[in-house]
Amino acid sequence: MNNSTKDIQNTSKTEIRTSAISGKGKFAKQKIMFGEYITTLSGELVHSDPDITSVCDKFGVSGDDPLQIDDEQFLVLDHESKTINHSCNPNAGLRNKSDLYAIREINADEEITYDYSTTSGTNDTWTMNCGCNTEVCRKTIGNVLTIPASIMAKYIALDALPMFIRKQIKKAGRLI
Ligand SMILES: [Zn+2]
What we know:
Blueprint: H1 3-13, E1 14-18, E2 24-28, E3 37-40, E4 43-47, H2 52-59, E5 66-70, E6 73-77, H3 79-82, E7 85-86, E8 92-95, E9 99-102, E10 111-114, E11 128-129, E12 140-141, H4 149-157, H5 163-171
């Protein structure tokens, strides 16, 4: 799929609205099918050591803003990408570096979310308090190794993990 097709899908099916989870969020304007491409998160590419805190210090942003996309690469997300909230029971997941796909059918007016822990590398010390209010809420969100095994199995089956995370959890013995 080329970029122009992606952009058209992105702008036609989603929009930014006020979120019940946190601040603004990205919402479906119409039904998005299971497995459908939603958007590619974008921002300024930064090369850094694996701990996100050095990126935050440099750019004056908080720990849930930069998106790790490789062992030593982060995107300091642009405004639109930053608005997509975390949920412990998400309806979307990241593939490749930062491509967001629906991991179940998403209804019109539903907020689009992904699990931030799926983008936080095994050496990352980042944590965040979660207010997603889902039944499976983990309350404190940490790096990918803090995802419960049953949920991790689901993400693996749904192809909801970026490439660098797949490599890192394989190394850590967590990829089944
Ligand atoms: Zn939660």
